[in-house]
């Protein structure tokens, strides 16, 4: 009855999906309670099973939903073209942040699926996830070579790029934790992004001509 579910008002769909994503992300498939899901979604268990038949049907629906979200709301915004490596990393960090902010439940759910549940999924779902990861890898491999002329002569571009990547990923992880603060004002957020851009400027000074 998936068609019936998708004919619901969007607000009702979203409430059920968010509730289920959060419970599965927190508990994993085996320990996730449908009682907790219907309680959070404010629906009856009969209604849930009318739309999804059973717990497994709901879980697989969520995987399809999450993969579509990450493809359409994150992967398409990844910069595979810019040869300025620092700029490319900056663009991708901001795309990742936007995805985290708009779809926190999806991100948490997929993390649980990938790191705890992947090998127990049917082959068809392992293939779907594997295809997405392989497609991303292939696009990365097809990315234009970084503009080596930007780097100072004393640095080996590939080594410098690796150091820059690790530095930006580490800084972005700290930045993400700060953004999770519920009482963070818009002014505070803008200041954090200004600090991030300043950090990128420091990397440019250190590694670029």
Describe the fold and architecture:
It is a single chain. This protein has 209 residues and is mainly alpha-helical. The chain is built from ten helices and no strands. The chain has helices at 2-6, 10-31, 34-41, 45-52, 55-73, 85-102, 104-117, 123-141, 157-179, 186-207. The radius of gyration is 21 Å and the shape is elongated. The model has no long low-confidence stretch (mean pLDDT 87).
Annotation keywords:
209 residues, mainly alpha, 10 helices, 76% helix, elongated
Mean pLDDT: 87
Structural class: mainly alpha
Low-confidence stretches: none
The percentage of residues in β strands lies in: under 5%
Précis, in short:
76% of the residues lie in helices and 0% in strands. It has helices at residues 2-6, 10-31, 34-41, 45-52, 55-73, 85-102, 104-117, 123-141, 157-179, 186-207. α5 (55-73) packs across α7 (104-117).
Structural topology:
Elements: H1 2-6, H2 10-31, H3 34-41, H4 45-52, H5 55-73, H6 85-102, H7 104-117, H8 123-141, H9 157-179, H10 186-207
Helix pairs in contact: 2-3, 2-5, 2-7, 4-5, 5-7, 6-9, 9-10
């Amino acid at each position: 009855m998936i068609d019936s579910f998708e004919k619901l008002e969007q607000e009702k769909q979203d409430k059920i999906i968010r509730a289920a994503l959060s419970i599965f992300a927190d508990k994993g498939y085996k320990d996730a309670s449908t009682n907790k899901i219907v309680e959070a979604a404010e629906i009856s268990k009969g209604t849930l099973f009318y739309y999804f038949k059973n717990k497994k049907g709901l879980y697989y629906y969520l995987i399809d939903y999450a993969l579509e979200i990450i493809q359409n709301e994150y992967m398409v915004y990844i910069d595979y073209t810019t040869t300025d490596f620092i700029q490319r990393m900056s663009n991708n960090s901001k795309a990742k942040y936007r995805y985290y902010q708009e779809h926190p439940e999806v991100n948490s759910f997929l993390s649980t699926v990938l790191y705890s549940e992947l090998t127990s999924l049917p082959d068809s779902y392992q293939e779907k996830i594997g295809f997405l990861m392989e497609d991303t890898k292939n696009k990365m491999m097809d990315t234009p070579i970084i503009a080596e002329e930007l780097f100072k002569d004393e640095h080996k571009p590939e080594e410098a790029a690796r150091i820059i990547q690790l530095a930006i990923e580490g800084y972005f992880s700290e930045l993400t934790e700060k953004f999770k603060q519920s009482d963070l004002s818009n002014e505070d957020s803008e200041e954090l992004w200004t600090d991030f851009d300043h950090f990128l400027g420091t990397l440019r000074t250190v590694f670029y001509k």
